[in-house]
Amino acid sequence: DTGVSQNPRHKITKRGQNVTFRCDPISEHNRLYWYRQTLGQGPEFLTYFQNEAQLEKSRLLSDRFSAERPKGSFSTLEIQRTEQGDSAMYLCASSFPRAGVSGYTFGSGTRLTVV
Amino acid sequence: LAKTTQPISMDSYEGQEVNITCSHNNIATNDYITWYQQFPSQGPRFIIQGYKTKVTNEVASLFIPADRKSSTLSLPRVSLSDTAVYYCLVGDGDTGRRALTFGSGTRLQVQP
């Protein structure tokens, strides 16, 4: 297992278009997290899954954002009607039970640019 | 979740020891203190975690005083490759149920 994989690494889209990102967590990790990071800031929490259940969503996750983890393995994050303010790095992380905070492994992220 | 305060940036030279202090006055009894490192265009990477006193691994040491209201990440003999942003987080380290809350981090610049 090579860690958390995110695709694509980069995405450029026109304002108003829909985009979808994919995250493949470490196989034995049942918890999966999405974060967003803008330049010069730390990552901001978006949403969290345990297996296929979405257990927590941040207020940052507007109605245009939706995340799924249909079989408790990979996850997708979709942004509809993208806006320039959506430009950011979208990070995925996974963890396993009772590992503590040290159990979080992050992917390298998907950098979204909305033009 | 406990809020953390750390310096925005620090400069150092190769071979020096770097100490980055983080304040977390409202840390809860169940909270652990964790430090992450982030290079440009990469996700954060776990460095070290502790609850009290001192923790050391092959990368760094973490010093936590008895009141746990602050912590210090110590990087021995830094090199250019240690140039990165370092984040201090406090949270429920036991079960990993809660999402991590990042601050703005400390940008460490190591010069030759």
State mean pLDDT of chain B (0 to 100 scale): 90
Structural class of chain B: mainly beta
Radius of gyration of chain B: 13 Å
Largest pleated sheet of chain A: 7 strands, mixed
> Quaternary state, please?
heterodimer
Distance between the termini of chain A: 35 Å
Overview of this protein structure:
The complex is a heterodimer of chains A (115) and B (112). Chain A is mainly β. Chain A has strands at residues 5-7, 10-13, 19-24, 31-37, 44-50, 53-57, 65-68, 75-79, 88-95, 105-106, 110-114. The model of chain A has no long low-confidence stretch (mean pLDDT 91). In chain A, the strands form 2 sheets. In chain A, strands 2, 4, 5, 6, 9, 10 and 11 form a 7-stranded mixed sheet that branches. A 4-stranded antiparallel sheet of chain A has the order 1-3-8-7, with no helix packed on it. By secondary structure, chain B is mainly beta. Chain B is built from no helices and 9 strands. Chain B has a 5-stranded mixed sheet with strand order 1-9-8-3-4, with no helix packed on it. In chain B, strand 5 (53-56) and strand 6 form a beta hairpin. The model of chain B has no long low-confidence stretch (mean pLDDT 90). Classes of the chains: A mainly beta (115), B mainly beta (112). Chain A binds chain B through residues 4, 31, 33, 35, 40-45, 48, 56, 89, 91-93, 95-109, 111, and chain B through 32, 34, 41-46, 49, 85, 87, 89, 91-97, 99-105.
